[in-house]
Amino acid sequence: METRKHLCTNCSFEADDDSDYCPRCGTLFIDNIKCEIHTKDKASGACVICGKPFCSNCGHSVNNIFLCNEHDGFEVYEGMAKIFGTSDEIQIHYVKGCLEENSFHPFIHSKKSAPMQLGGNDQPLINLSGNRREKILNEIKLLVPCSEVLEAEELITQLNI
């Protein structure tokens, strides 16, 4: 039997019909949902990382994706969030393998510049600005679906990398 889908009016993602919000952008499908923190205030969206509803004081849209204030530092790309970054290809594949062994769905994203342009292998020339200090120019990013972020981060913490 085919599962019915709900088309999100914000991002056109086809979510399961029984979903309360769009897992891709956080748009609420149900009216009158209250904020997780301010229980008398109407929620503006559901955080795509933790799945909890929040009002406009507790969360906001970042590039048309709703994130709570606690998780607004995550880089999110088409339903996936960065959980780890490095310039070391061996390390990124090790972490990816550990995540796969634990039934996660990691994806490696790399936009590395050629070493000749930067003066050597994997030597970041600058740190990029932003909420996360570990952003580097030659960064290889490990992404997982937003719904897996919190558990995947726990596993990475246990790896002690």
List SSEs in N-to-C order.
EEEEEEEEHEHEH
What does the average pLDDT come to? Answer: 86
Strand arrangement across the biggest beta sheet: 7-8-10-9
CATH superfamily of the largest domain: UreE, C-terminal domain
What's the CATH architecture of the largest domain?
2-Layer Sandwich
Termini separation (Å)? 44 Å
Q: Strand tally, please?
A: 10
At the fold tier of CATH, the topology name of the largest domain is Alpha-Beta Plaits
Query: Residue share in helices?
Result: 10-25%
Number of helices: 3
Profile the largest sheet. Answer: 4 strands, antiparallel
Shape annotation: globular
Summarize the structure.
By secondary structure, the protein is of the alpha+beta class.
Verbal overview:
The chain has 161 residues and is of the alpha+beta class. The protein has two domains: 1-72, no CATH class; 76-159, Alpha-Beta Plaits. It is built from three helices and ten strands, in the order ββββββββαβαβα. The strands form four sheets. The chain has a four-stranded antiparallel sheet. A hairpin with a 2-residue loop joins strand 7 (76-77) and strand 8. It is globular and about 50 Å long. The model is unreliable at 114-119 and 121-134 (pLDDT under 50).
Task: Based on the model shown, name its key terms.
161 residues, 4-stranded antiparallel sheet, alpha+beta, Alpha-Beta Plaits
Topology:
Elements lengths: L4 E3 L6 E3 L28 E2 L6 E2 L4 E4 L2 E4 L7 E2 L2 E7 L2 H13 L5 E4 L4 H4 L21 E6 L3 H11 L2
